[in-house]
Design goal:
The complex is a heterodimer of chains A (227) and B (406). Chain A is an alpha/beta fold and 227 residues long. Helices cover 36% and strands 28% of the residues of chain A. In chain A, α3 (102-112) crosses α4, α3 (102-112) packs parallel to α5 (146-159) and α5 packs parallel to α6 (176-192). Chain A is globular, with a radius of gyration of 17 Å. Chain B folds into two domains: 2-49 and 255-405, no CATH class; 63-239, no CATH class. With 406 residues, chain B is α+β, with helices and mostly antiparallel strands. Chain B contains 16 helices and 14 strands. Classes of the chains: A alpha/beta (227), B alpha+beta (406). At the A-B interface, α2, β6 and α3 of A face α1 and α11 of B.
Chain lengths: 227, 406
């Protein structure tokens, strides 16, 4: 069962005098429960592809389906709702809300989904336990290490039980130990919750952990290997 | 959690928030003082004029106010006075006979206002007993007068001297008499202090040959806000073809107009002050918005609706405005209460200069509730209007662009 389907996705930026073709006809399908890494050199279009798959940006050409819904021409307002219900994001710079505690950061997504307080509490604590940072629940993100913050970010992404989690260079700011811990946790969540992960990365440690590797170059898929 | 988020967001940049809140506090403080002093002066002027002379409502023979002659006096109707006094909110109805005479002592003569008064009721209105600075108060059978201090000074008379008065009585009759001065009274309102002579009502009626007649009935009421209702009630009880019932605004049109004109300048100053503060607040809100563009982008990415973000931002602004307004009112209130009870009175040349304009020389402070809630509304209104900037920015925000540009 496919969670993401991209057909001939193209993206051209016309913000400069010379148009920049970031994606030149990407076709891919990602199945439920996959642990996929999108790799390639800087500027090959990884982040652009992730943004389009996540409904943060619209393709210039082509069609994108997420969870059996065509999001290609969806309005910005509808996309916000769609992302809330279907997509979890993990960013390179964690991007937690600094004034909320770690637990509140996780709860926040569920609050936006209008889940009740008990459900939010239970799920947030469950995720914090799974991430191994339950004792940090009432601390602010700034009191945590980068690796711990990223674990909170992953927990936040998982909190809404999305169809797919898109992670843009999630380990770029982490040291080896934190990276290993985070990858283990994500692999565990992938196995236990059957969560679908799609990473953009050029971190070899992530690539080694991925079950499927899609390589981009100059905005096109040049290889797609499942291990 | 949205409230928590907004509250904590305010304190993310403590220094900036404190400066913004302090500027609002200072504005409210300054505006409260300025307006309190201005409204206090108006209240004092009205109070002086109404409380020392006209009362808040007067009843006369129709046409008396336009042509204040003794010929336009009305019948002294005790039943009417009692009926008026039975109306809720009326403390006392004060009967008077007033007319102008020439008052003379030695070689000095001055046009003066003779007020024939009900000795006890008049005291309820003008507190005349407490204004006595020399001699003693009149007795009901005294054929004597009290002279206002300014007039006494002009005529160079004192207690025990006799005042010669000559004027015109009812229907052209001669009004003349010689009256010993039993006391000197001092009023803060210069016009009143420089020309008034008081005598018992019966003696004034005899002087002006208006036995059984009055020129006016002045009313003391519980609250100035009751004036309109009381006028309506009196109007329904009396023949309005014969009598006119006037409120303090009609009795003192010049004062009301003067206050209105002066009030405009006060409001202009206030809006200038608000504008300065408004620009300061706008600067803060712009910074708050600019430095959180990335965060807005992230929030929108993870599924936060624009309207919620906008709501949180407006909440932050409203909270800062509330803190500033409450602090401003909180700080100003004790001072205003103190100065309301202990006005700053001027003395010497400064006082004389101000008194020349016919007003009491001092700074008086008002504690009208509107003074405070108007500040609150003005600041809130400003915060909400300025809140349109971040609302607009968020409305146009595209998450990818916001994150990339930040």
């Amino acid at each position: 069962m496919s969670v993401i389907k991209a057909e001939n996705v193209q993206k051209t930026y016309n913000e400069t005098k010379v148009p920049v073709h970031a994606l030149n006809g990407v076709n891919l399908t990602i199945e439920k429960g996959e642990f996929t890494a999108i790799v390639g050199p800087s500027g090959c279009g990884k982040t652009t592809l992730l943004n389009i798959l996540g409904g943060l940006d619209h393709p210039t050409e082509g069609r994108v389906e997420v969870a059996d819904t065509n999001i290609t021409d969806m309005s910005d307002g509808n996309l916000i709702d769609f992302r809330l219900q279907n997509i979890g994001f993990v960013f390179q710079a964690y991007n937690l809300i600094p004034v909320l505690t770690n637990k509140e950061n996780i709860e926040f997504i569920m609050l936006l989904q209008k889940q009740d307080k008990k459900t939010r509490d239970d799920r947030a604590m469950e995720l914090l336990n799974q991430m191994g940072i339950a004792d940090k629940a009432d601390q602010r993100p700034s009191e945590l290490s980068g690796g711990q913050q990223q674990r909170v970010a992953v927990a936040r992404a998982l909190a809404s039980k999305p169809k797919v989690i898109l992670a843009d260079e999630p380990t770029a700011n982490l040291d080896s130990k934190s990276t290993a811990t985070l990858l283990d946790i994500m692999a565990k969540m992938n196995a236990e919750e059957n969560a679908t992960f799609v990473f953009s990365t050029h971190d070899q440690r992530v690539i080694d952990k991925a079950k499927r590797i899609i390589t981009l170059e100059d905005g096109v898929v040049i290889s797609d290997v499942t291990r | 959690m949205y409230l928590t988020l907004a509250w904590r967001n305010i304190w993310r940049n403590k220094r900036r928030s404190i400066i913004t809140i302090a500027s609002i506090t200072f504005a409210v403080l300054l505006a409260s003082f300025m307006r309190s002093m201005q409204l206090g002066s108006y209240e004092r002027m009205i109070e002086n004029a109404a409380g020392f002379y006209t009362g808040y409502i007067q009843v006369h023979q129709k046409g008396y106010w336009d042509e204040k002659t003794i010929d336009n006096s009305m019948v002294q109707d005790q039943a009417l006075i009692e009926k008026i006094e039975s109306i809720k909110g009326v403390q006392v109805a004060v009967p008077r006979v007033e007319s102008f005479v020439l008052a003379s002592f030695g070689t000095k003569t001055k046009g003066s206002l003779v007020m024939g008064i009900d000795l006890e009721k008049e005291d309820a209105l003008t507190k005349i007993k407490s204004k006595l600075i020399a001699g003693s108060y009149l007795g009901i059978n005294d054929k004597a007068v009290l002279v206002a201090e300014g007039l006494a000074e002009y005529l160079k008379v004192g207690v025990g001297d006799s005042l010669v008065m000559i004027g015109q009585g009812y229907h052209g009759s001669n009004a003349a008499g010689i009256y010993p001065i039993k006391g000197i009274v001092k009023f803060p309102v210069p016009d009143q202090n420089n020309q008034t002579v008081y005598m018992p009502l019966k003696k004034a009626q005899w002087l002006f040959d208006v036995d059984g007649r009055l020129t006016s009935i002045a009313l003391v009421v519980d609250k100035v806000q009751m004036v309109d209702r009381i006028i309506a009630e009196i109007s329904s009880e009396v023949d309005t073809e014969q009598l006119e019932i006037m409120g303090w605004r009609d009795l003192m049109p010049d004062l009301v107009q003067g206050i209105e004109i002066d009030n405009v300048s006060g409001r202009i100053m206030l809006w200038i002050l608000y504008s300065v503060i408004g620009f300061g607040m706008f600067g803060t809100f712009m910074m708050m918005t600019a430095e959180r563009m990335y965060e807005f982008g992230v929030m929108m990415s993870v599924g936060m609706k624009r309207i919620i973000m906008q709501w949180i931002i407006v909440l932050e602004m409203a909270m800062m405005a509330t803190i500033g307004v409450l602090a401003g009112i909180g700080i100003s209130l004790p001072f205003l209460i103190y100065y309301h009870n202990n006005p700053i009175m001027l003395t010497g040349e400064a006082a004389a200069a101000i008194e020349n304009f016919g007003v009491e020389a001092g700074y008086f402070f008002s504690l009208q509730a509107s003074l405070f809630y108007n500040q609150a509304w003005a600041i809130f209104f400003m915060a909400i209007v300025l809140g349109f900037y971040p609302i607009y920015v968020i409305q146009r925000l595209k998450p990818v662009e916001a994150m990339r540009e930040a």
